[in-house]
Fold Methyltransferase FkbM domain-containing protein.
Amino acid sequence: MSAKEQSGANMQEYPTNEERTAQYHEQFNREKTLRLLLTEACPVIFDVGANVGTTLREFTEWWPEASIHCFEPQEECWDELEGNALKYSGGQVTLNHCAVGSIKTDRAVFYTHNISRGISGFHKINLESNDSIKLKEVRESGEQGLAQYEEGLNQERPVEVI
């Protein structure tokens, strides 16, 4: 037996990242967590920031009789969200093309970004921050890449907040 085999023979085997993730999901997942909170068979669910309806699909699988109210102010998401509402709901979904907040207004400043439909909201992306999405890679691509990146960020539009 080689020295490598001998040293490895006494080492404890550890699960891979994938195995640990699978173990985690066996014990903790969204459905289990939400079922602890929503114990009714026909709950009323508010999906705030519904985006294109990914969570809507999950809710209709877990609670087929639920009444679901989706709130999404971003126009780029509406067509796909409406399609998913028709596909998954059986008519128990109410779509609201607005945001939800603590202060009601007809014209809140909402920021969208060309990076992803899922990255939008009431706060600008800070271009000075090293944590900004893909900023390191964009800076490495040169001034033109950075200018194009900046152009696609922080596009303001008014949205209704209820």
Notes: Strands lie at 44-48, 67-71, 93-96, 105-112, 155-161. The helical segments are 3-9, 17-27, 30-37, 54-62, 75-89, 135-140, 143-151. DSSP finds seven helices and five strands in the chain.
